[in-house]
Amino acid sequence: MLCEEQHETPSNLYSSRDVLAVNEKSGENPLPTCMEDTAAEGRQEEGSFCQSEEIQKEIKELRRRDEEECRLKQQNVRSRIDQHLIQNGGDLSLLLSQHTVPNEVKCVQLTRFGQTKNIQSDKVPLPLPMKGDVLIRSHSCGVNFHDTMTRNGILDNWVRSAKPPFIMGSEVAGEIVGLGKNVTDLKLGDRVIALPERKAWSEYVVCREEYCFKIPDQMSYHEAVALTVDGIVSHSLLFQMGNLSSGKAVLLHSTPGGLGTLVTQMARTVPNTRIFKITAERMNGKHVESSDHAVHYIERDTDYVSEIRNSYPHGVDLVLDGLHESNFHRDFNLLSPMGKYVLFGNRTTNGGLFDTAKSWLGQEKVSPLKLYEENKSICGFNLRNLLYFQKDRRYIRETFDKVCQMWQDGEIQAVFDCILQFDDFNEALQHVQDHGQVGKVILDPRISKEDSLNEHDPENMTLPTSKKEEENLERKISPDLHEGNEHKHVHGFLGKLREVFSPNV
Amino acid sequence: MLCEEQHETPSNLYSSRDVLAVNEKSGENPLPTCMEDTAAEGRQEEGSFCQSEEIQKEIKELRRRDEEECRLKQQNVRSRIDQHLIQNGGDLSLLLSQHTVPNEVKCVQLTRFGQTKNIQSDKVPLPLPMKGDVLIRSHSCGVNFHDTMTRNGILDNWVRSAKPPFIMGSEVAGEIVGLGKNVTDLKLGDRVIALPERKAWSEYVVCREEYCFKIPDQMSYHEAVALTVDGIVSHSLLFQMGNLSSGKAVLLHSTPGGLGTLVTQMARTVPNTRIFKITAERMNGKHVESSDHAVHYIERDTDYVSEIRNSYPHGVDLVLDGLHESNFHRDFNLLSPMGKYVLFGNRTTNGGLFDTAKSWLGQEKVSPLKLYEENKSICGFNLRNLLYFQKDRRYIRETFDKVCQMWQDGEIQAVFDCILQFDDFNEALQHVQDHGQVGKVILDPRISKEDSLNEHDPENMTLPTSKKEEENLERKISPDLHEGNEHKHVHGFLGKLREVFSPNV
């Protein structure tokens, strides 16, 4: 049997660790020996049933050819890298110092816009960084609603211009193993979160330096993915645009996933904030009895305007409108004097966001004079445009730093819905598209298929990706969430979290 | 000669002090003796030329009738007050404890909208407070651009509904000498700034309690007038709506008077703020050489967009648009990502503000989607609507408190253009209408005509209203403005201030 191309696996990976250790110990070849897959190993142990000399010989020959092929592949990839460095410059020494340099990397490809079947796990040549790029060995990839729209071929500017096939994904955290020419702010070994426009769902990711942000030492890669985009958006909506101060009332239409929990967590850091959350029908009942005084849940189809005016006759100070379900005039009128209406474009249920928004807002133009007469503000926030078109890296970096500070101060924490292996991308996307997630949905390129268990089994819904990360996560979760011993494992306290944070959807 | 109705004059008044002292010393009557006017006094001293018994008798008779008339008037007014208290309740004890209770008070009346001649100094019966009102003995009345529009019969809601004659003015500071029924937050003797919708230019002003705000002990009445409206507007534009933070660029179209200087002073409190001030043509030359690095002056008719983009290629973070001269699209496009456009409606040069604004903005509706795509905000601020229609007293009080705190911390200071007597209302209004003022224009009801000197004489342009206030003012002015002895008097250092602050127009 021919060996599969395989590159050095991080030592903290749960799967294949022992196999790797055996190979690492042998150390006979100047180039590393390829590992047999576990099936071949199994076959070897069954040797007592077929100890003929011929079979022994065949196995030896197979191994030799296997090793030879691996050696050639290593030679090829290293010579490709040398060529790349001669032509383009840069520094790939950290990549080259790896035990095995992968010739091909695993990723998630979109072959055609549209259905589920058009997205598939694939292998592509190792990407290499050009001028201004960095090469990241990825540890954690985020799944967001935008990915579902990308898959469906709706929204947005770059998807419209980019033609499949391409690699999916726009959020990834990992360590920098290569630098293109002229990279100035980052160095080899830096732990970063990267927000490339696409191609994030891959074992190795090339990204422009300007879309990468260093993460604090104590922050795990999964936490970085959970906190970056949602954290920057939440912070911008509440503080930069909303200018939230003590004693204000905020109206938030149902925002699932990491964004919903982060907006709530951040709003809670301001004393006496009251958050009105309009929840989906399916959440009926549960929320209303919540013991959380900061958050008031109202079912979507009820007369929430009257309900809010009962306690806030002058209306709310801040409306966060995800562009998808609110009636602009109704919510605008619900604003109190000095109130702010922030449009942030989160998601849409039917058709493209831009199509929806254009038809929805086409007739919704506002006279600035009306704002002047009523002492109101309308603000718009669109992180993708800010990052990829307006390229306001300074703002994004400063805001990310503030988010990290809030995290370090224990004011906010990363909340995960599930951490899945690459091959579960379709389940992950569907989960997000159905707004079923509570907290961040993550694809972990370091988990192999064998380690990943059915997400529908609640006890095994999520897997820790490293002991250290598990500890980090446990440390960050407030103590009251896992007082008992039953919450020692990530999937355990994530299960608990699901209970606790469900109301926040 | 009959005495003129005259009430107790504050002991710190510059004028008539000696005359008053004489009368106070006599103290023969249970009701106070009316003073002769200075002409009568003069006539008395010429007595050596007409010492006939008849003349002596005539003078005695005149005095007796004078005193009798005054006594009757005091009886009348006190009985009117008693009646008022029986019918309406309240507490007028501080008013009644005054040496003289005025039957009539001096004020500035508008008889018809339009020309200068339709506004006149007048006397009206002492106003008395109804339920929820306070009665203020005024010490300082502010003149703002809105007053000129009121006089001209343009703008705004209440002027359109109110028919002349009425008493002009919407800003007054003084002490509370009477309370209507059900006044809860204020008490007799409180020093307040009041923002009645009108009738502020009077020796005694009745105002709803909700429009009155207590001022710090150390703040003079003139300072309160200079800091309140302009301070609240400036603070709202820069911090509440603009959310100004370090390192931002602000575009400010020429804003004369107290508002312009306060916006600049407050913006300077934020590190590394750069203010682009579009100045009137007549200011040509002077400003460009300013040594002030925080403020960059650009002449109105030049290509300021290019000039700003030279140093801020991404544009400005905040545009403050006084609704009067900017081109909305030009300035909106000059906003950087995350930039804010704040419309605050300061003044208009031709026709009414509302007329101008409606024609100007009628075709300038903005799609919120555009804001979303461009990461921009549009905000409107209108203090009058906020105060009189939306009645958001809490916001106004909180913002005023922040302004007072900035003043107490020495971050901002009151700047005066001139402090004039009541009878100079027309000069004051014209000065403001012509945008000629640098700092606040004030009418002081405690200065008599004799004390007030021609404002066009620079050395006597302004007068201190009390020694204490003069000291207060001097103390507040930064030391470098009056290092020499020549600035000991208010008009002296105000002259200096004019030089120093001229560039800020």
What is the topology?
Two copies of one chain form a homodimer.
Chain A: H1 17-26, H2 38-45, H3 53-88, H4 93-96, E1 104-110, E2 119-125, E3 133-143, H5 145-152, H6 157-161, E4 166-167, E5 172-179, E6 191-194, E7 204-208, E8 212-214, H7 221-241, E9 249-253, H8 257-268, E10 274-279, E11 295-299, H9 304-311, E12 316-321, H10 328-333, E13 335-343, H11 353-361, H12 368-374, E14 377-380, H13 383-389, H14 393-408, E15 416-421, H15 425-433, E16 440-444, H16 467-476, H17 490-501
Parallel strand pairs in A: 9-10, 9-12, 10-11, 12-13, 13-14, 15-16
Antiparallel strand pairs in A: 1-2, 1-4, 3-5, 3-7, 3-16, 5-6, 6-8
Helix pairs in contact in A: 5-15, 7-8, 7-14
Structural class call of chain A reads alpha/beta
State the helicity of chain A in percent bands.
25-40%
| Low-confidence region ranges of chain A | 1-42, 284-291, 348-352, 451-467, 470-505
Oligomer: homodimer
- Rounded radius of gyration of chain A (Å): 25 Å
CATH uppermost class of the domain at 229-407 in chain A: Alpha Beta
Distinct helical segment count of chain A: 17
Mean pLDDT of chain A: 77
What CATH architecture of the domain at 229-407 in chain A would you give?
A: 3-Layer(aba) Sandwich
Cα shape of chain A: elongated
Main pleated sheet of chain A:
7 strands, mixed
Q: Biggest protein-protein interface?
A: A-B, 43 and 43 residues
Count of distinct strands of chain A: 16
Alpha-carbon distance between the two ends of chain A: 50 Å
CATH fold category name of the domain at 229-407 in chain A:
Rossmann fold
Considering the protein shown, what is the CATH homologous superfamily of the domain at 229-407 in chain A? NAD(P)-binding Rossmann-like Domain
Beta-strand percentage range of chain A:
15-25%
